[in-house]
Each structure stands twice: as C-alpha cells, then as structure tokens.
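Dear H.,

Thanks for agreeing to be a second pair of eyes. The structure we're designing against is below in token form, covering all 165 positions.
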C-alpha cells in the first residue's frame, strides 16, 4: 500500500496497451489504485520510486505500463505517429488504420477545397468543371488504390487542375 503523502502523480493507463492516457496531480480526493470496473483503465500511483523521467511529457511519450508485472518500462519514442507499442511482441508495430485515417483527413480537405467548383454559380467553363469533377473522383477513389504508403507525404496524390492550385 502506497502512503498517500508519497504520491506525486496519478496515472491513468489503457489496460489493453499499457499506454499512459493521462497523468494528474493528486487532489484532496485520490482515486483507488487498480483496474476500473469495466477493465479498460487502470489507476497507478506515481511516486519517486517509479517516476523514471522527471519531464512528464517525456514520461508519457516514452514510458508505458506493463499490467502483468505492474511496472513502468521504457519503450522510447515511436518511430512515427502511426506506430503503436505491442505488449505481446515488445516492439513497435505499424498501425495501418491510423495512417489510413490521416490520409482520409488530407483527402477530405482537398475535396472540400474544391467544393466550390461544383456550384452552379462558379465562373468556370464546362471543361474546367469536368476537370474538377475528374480530380474529385480521383481523390474519392484514392484510398481504394493505395500501394502501402509509409506516410501521408508518400501518397501519390492526384494533381489538381491549374485553377485549383
């Protein structure tokens, strides 16, 4: 049992991954340490003994929690924003779904920037409207034809018509 006076911070941990969700300052009401009722989150007291990095931002970024031995361990910085630490393999794994979500965000922004071309009062020629439609179709179809990109920047984006650049 941890002495309440020794608690520096309270960490909320994702039980499935061991990722630190947030770190809070202790207040007058300190939650009980342990697993949440639904089994998805864990409260862990952080003391001088298990605070391995004084910079909390770096602690959250580079340290995870092992729910088996109930200890923090260093994983280091993720190789990219689409990597997730795997407790089972003790290594970074590629999160293709996270990359695809980012690609869709960028794609949707490009489509939104060209929405005006489809309005009836847009001062475009019929040829320009057709160019914009082809561009927008290529953007919508982009995620079905991806060739395993390593980043959003590595995607072979359709070239917008000159009047959209």
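And this is the sequence the design step returned. I haven't edited it by hand at all.
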């Amino acid at each position: 049992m941890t002495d309440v006076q020794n608690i520096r911070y309270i960490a909320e941990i994702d039980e499935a991954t061991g990722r630190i969700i947030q770190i809070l300052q202790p207040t007058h009401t300190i939650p009980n340490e342990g697993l949440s009722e639904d089994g998805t989150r864990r409260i862990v007291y952080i003391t001088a003994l298990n605070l391995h990095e004084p910079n909390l931002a770096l602690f959250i970024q580079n340290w995870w929690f092992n729910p088996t031995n109930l200890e923090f361990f260093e994983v280091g910085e993720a190789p990219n924003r689409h990597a997730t630490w795997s407790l089972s393999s003790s290594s970074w794994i590629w999160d293709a779904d996270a990359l695809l979500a980012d690609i869709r965000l960028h794609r949707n922004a490009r489509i939104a920037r060209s929405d005006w071309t489809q309005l009836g009062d847009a001062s475009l020629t019929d040829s320009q409207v057709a160019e914009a439609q082809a561009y927008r179709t290529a953007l919508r179809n982009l995620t079905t034809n991806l060739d395993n990109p390593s980043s959003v920047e590595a995607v072979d984006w359709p070239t917008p018509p000159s009047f959209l650049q």
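Two observations from my side: Strands lie at 9-14, 20-24, 34-35, 41-46, 63-66, 71-74, 83-86, 91-94. The chain has two domains: 4-94, 96-164.

Warmly,
E.
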